[in-house]
Amino acid sequence: MNTFEFDLAVIGGGSGGVRAARMAAQRGARVLLAEAGALGGTCVNVGCIPKKLYSYAAHFGEAFTLAHGFGWDAPKPVLDWPRLKANRAREITRLNGIYHDLLANAGVQLVNGWASLAGPHTVAVAGTGGARHITSRHILVATGGHPLVPDLPGAEHGVTSDGMFDLDPFPRRLVVVGGGYIASEFASIFHGLGAHVTQLVRGGHLLRGFDADVSNFLAAEMRKAGVHLRIHTEVAAVTRQGDLRQVLLKDGSTLEADAVLFATGRVPNVAGLGLTAVGVAQGKDGAIVVDAHHQTSVPSIHALGDVTARLQLTPVALGEAMALVDRLLGTGARRMDYDFVPTAVFTHPNVGTVGCTEAEARAKFGAVAVFKTDFKPLMHTLSGSTERTFMKLVVDRASDRVVGLHMVGPDAGEVVQGFAVAMKAGATKAVFDSTIGIHPTLAEEFVTMRTPVPD
Ligand code: FAD
Ligand code: NDP
């Protein structure tokens, strides 16, 4: 006998929650989804999508300059920032509506409200009509994360990535604190939109965890483009006088800025969820601990995406959601496969990467062959830009498998996505070598590198 009102109750309507709810409902399950904010979560509202739209905007600004060498003359372009913001907001609202319709059409019961756990099978949802308790056979927590701002004097005078999309006015001088994905992307984007950008990195490198050559090459290209990148630089305090922010550095010097972005990492959204009372185990920063099947320490409660603080990427949250629904409502016990997850950083130039860094490959496989190239892309022979492109392959010598592929250059994410398929299928360097290139492209370099760098 069916004792629960729902088969699946989802808390959080972001990338992972929406995908799980929709897929479960399409399989005939009775599904409820509670979302406290706007449907689509971080990615749609304050992440991937608006960020990429602004990245396009920044590239357009540069294109006017590059076009000169190709015979085009145009007056110096001027950014209409309010128009860009309004067009972005309109598009995001359209996407929110699409998410709503997809869920509603699949038969998901949508609740706009804050939800928490009230038991292993019970969710409390605070809606406009007051709190309501529902019961469900399975519960999925997909509440995502939020930016972490360092605890330093005056930190409240800064903004996080959430506030960058609607800054008013456009910051002529922007200080970006951090060296990760978000800091590097926003530094590039706002530089491209016309701001004077200073990026402060506390460590010695951008993008910790990426291949060292990638991080060094990107840093050099961003500097060449005009981003003031300062490594081993830490903020002591921020003060504000009217619209002016002063950033006091630990070396005693001061920077002036119209806006200060803290892009210093993200932590899981777990406050007020009732995890402890229900017995859901948590790890660092409160992240929900799950097994390989996204099951928490309470068997009926599952979690995925950023709230589990593993790989914080939209396609990973989507993949986890599909694996979970297959397991709970399908036939098999399919697991999410985390091997060869590709990723791109939408800096200018872009970074695309899949598989091991050279250091990881040396530690894992011992003997590796490394192939590298850096060159001036054909477009820049006429554009006048000094931007260069970097590519690198890391090959396990014993098996000849390509275990790492890295690129810094235009549309690196587009290039790397296809190679990720080949690498997941186990492509060897011999297969890369026997693949015919497409000429003239940047990507063809990945199948024409023949001489490894000396060990
Ligand atoms: P989210 O998408 O964050 O969704 C969680 C949802 O839960 C939110 O809508 C929230 O309102 C809701 N919620 C939270 N608590 C409750 C509650 N108690 N009750 C009801 N609802 C609740 N990834 C990429 O792959 N590519 C990119 O280019 C990229 N760019 C990014 C740029 C930025 C600036 C940021 C911040 C992130 C970016 N990411 C990118 C990461 C990506 O956005 C996340 O990995 C992804 O959104 C995680 O999905 P999720 O479902 O776990 O959580
Ligand atoms: P990251 O973990 O990538 O980077 C955080 C950065 O902040 C690091 O450089 C870190 O330095 C620095 N930092 C942390 N604390 C401090 C501090 N107190 N003072 C100064 N610097 C500090 O996090 P992000 O916030 O950039 O992004 C979060 C996640 O979102 C990413 O890991 C990624 O998974 C996802 N994302 C994905 C994107 C994409 O796919 N294109 C784009 C944007 C986000 P240190 O290295 O020294 O610790």
Keywords:
5-stranded antiparallel beta sheet; alpha/beta; 25% strand; binds NADPH dihydro-nicotinamide-adenine-dinucleotide phosphate; 455 residues
What gross morphology would you assign? Answer: globular
Low-confidence stretches: none
Which ligands does the model contain, each kind named once? flavin-adenine dinucleotide, NADPH dihydro-nicotinamide-adenine-dinucleotide phosphate
- Tell me the Rg in angstroms: 24 Å
Mean pLDDT: 97
Question: What assembly state would you assign to the polypeptide chains in this entry?
Answer: single chain
Q: Measure the end-to-end span.
A: 66 Å
Please give the share of residues in helix: 25-40%
Q: Would you report the number of β strands?
A: 21
Structural class: alpha/beta
The biggest beta sheet is recorded as:
7 strands, mixed
Portion of residues in beta strands equals 15-25%
Number of helices, where a helix is a run of at least 4 consecutive DSSP H or I residues: 13
